[in-house]
Design brief:
Elements (H helix, E strand, L loop, with lengths): L1 H10 L2 H16 L11 H13 L3 H32 L1 H15 L7 H8 L3 H25 L3 H9 L4 H35 L8 H10 L3 H29 L9
Helix pairs in contact: 3-11, 4-5, 4-7, 4-9, 4-10, 5-7, 6-7, 7-9, 8-9, 9-10, 9-11, 10-11
């Protein structure tokens, strides 16, 4: 039984990817669409290797990663305290919540003209756009998590004579750790989703620039390569955050199948 469970745990994550690659391979091979519009997995793999070894794709990957990490770090660093304040103080939440939801609903790509006007076309403009995406997505997760804290913990702490400050430090903050990690994961995904838009601002390097340049010359295989690189790096970073979360939150009860 243990051996069977081991193989299931090993194969189940692989099966969806194998199925996706098979479908991808069959679509152009069977002529379901024009083969020039959908390159085969082999063509994309060869293009990826060429870009990586000849055209230094790793520099574009590194540049995009740097932008995302910087925007994410700045956005979450501000989102966490703001989320705490909005979640803990009802009047502040009532006052600020409409503004947060208004700006959260604005697609970052719509702000490109204003960002160029106010921040130029250098790295700062790209980081500001990623910061914007990370901040508002992180704030929503944080303050919703604080608001949904079980009031039983707070009542017990008050019964034991804890002050508001002690309740915040010893009850709310520890219970907020899972929400901090969730906010980080959500903001990370939003940052990678916003990356291509941010690199529309006169980027010479980066995966978004690779995709944009390839689209100008109808190089579909390069577009696929850029998209897959973004998804793969984002997935790897999310896996790391999940592993960190599992380690940090060993005390938290979870449903185990």
């Amino acid at each position: 039984m243990t051996n069977r469970r081991f193989w299931l745990d090993l194969l189940l994550p692989v099966l969806p990817w194998a199925g996706l690659v098979l479908i991808w391979y069959l679509i152009p091979t069977l002529g379901l669409v024009n083969p020039s519009l959908v390159p085969t997995p082999g063509q994309v793999a060869r293009t990826f290797w060429h870009l990586l070894t000849v055209e230094r794709l790793w520099l574009d990957m590194l540049m995009s990663l740097q932008r995302v990490l910087l925007g994410l770090a700045l956005g979450i660093a501000l989102a966490i305290p703001v989320g705490f304040v909005l979640g803990w103080y009802r009047p502040m939440r009532t006052l600020i919540d409409p503004l947060v939801n208004f700006f959260r609903s604005l697609p970052p790509i719509a702000l490109i003209p204003l960002i160029i006007v106010y921040f130029g076309i250098d790295e700062l403009a790209k980081v500001v756009m990623l910061f914007y995406a990370a901040f508002f997505s992180g704030v929503i997760v944080m303050y919703e998590g604080i608001v949904q804290t079980n009031p039983l913990f707070i009542r017990v702490a008050r019964t034991l004579g804890a002050t508001d400050g002690e309740i915040f430090r010893r009850v709310i903050v520890p219970l907020a750790v899972p929400h901090v990690l969730t906010a980080l994961r959500v903001a990370l995904g939003v940052c990678w989703a916003t990356l291509v838009a941010s690199e529309l601002i006169a980027a010479q390097k980066g995966l978004g620039a690779v995709i944009q340049n390839a689209s100008n010359y109808f190089q579909i295989d390069r577009i696929y390569t850029g998209i897959i690189c973004i998804g793969a790096i984002a997935l790897a970073m999310d896996r790391v955050l999940r592993a960190v979360g599992a380690r940090v939150l060993q005390w938290q009860e979870r449903i185990v199948a």
